[in-house]
Predict the 3D structure of the following.
Amino acid sequence: MRHLSTMMRLAAGALLGGTLLLAEPAPAEAHLANFGSWEITRGYLQEIFPDATDFLRRRDSYTDAEVAQIEAELGFELYPEDRNPEFYIAVDESSGKRKFLGVALFIDPRVESRLLEGNVVRIEVGIGVDARGRVKRVRLFDYRGARALTRAEFLDQLVGLSLNDSFEVGPGEAIKPVEEEPIESQLVANAAREALYLMKVSLGQGG
């Protein structure tokens, strides 16, 4: 299987040729359905790729064999909806030409069930990956736990990481957790790694 950075460039080439993606994204079904509308989804995508003028969608579908491969690599079972992920390709057309900026994906990691102020705590992680196959930006949406988990001091530790890097979180690791929420800190890091790996599997198909 090709390296992720190579596949990202291939995806960009296919995008510029107009053969890979849908020009008008429909509302996503898996994770993004929770956002309620394309307008909300697009706003979240704009936080991940603020320079993008448009976002194009690519939907994939994994076979049972691919699901087994992904689960073995990640170390946990996929949600049923993760078998059909939605990838959002960020482009900049402000110059009159379509420029590939990267790919965004939303991951909804498993959080221990608990209530906070009458609401179920959940994490919706948006991950942007650049053309080199490295984490470009991570943002959290609809999170009601410790605000420190949503801030740059924690999230920016993931920027620049690739599948060749460790995503372990801990006091003795390169990625330091939010003190109040060490488990959730690891879940966010896991989501970034999952996004990278799902892109590797999906963008590597047919090559």
User: Anything to note?
Assistant: The radius of gyration is 16 Å. Residues 4-203 form one domain. Residues 18-33 have pLDDT under 50 and may be disordered. The chain has five helices and seven strands.
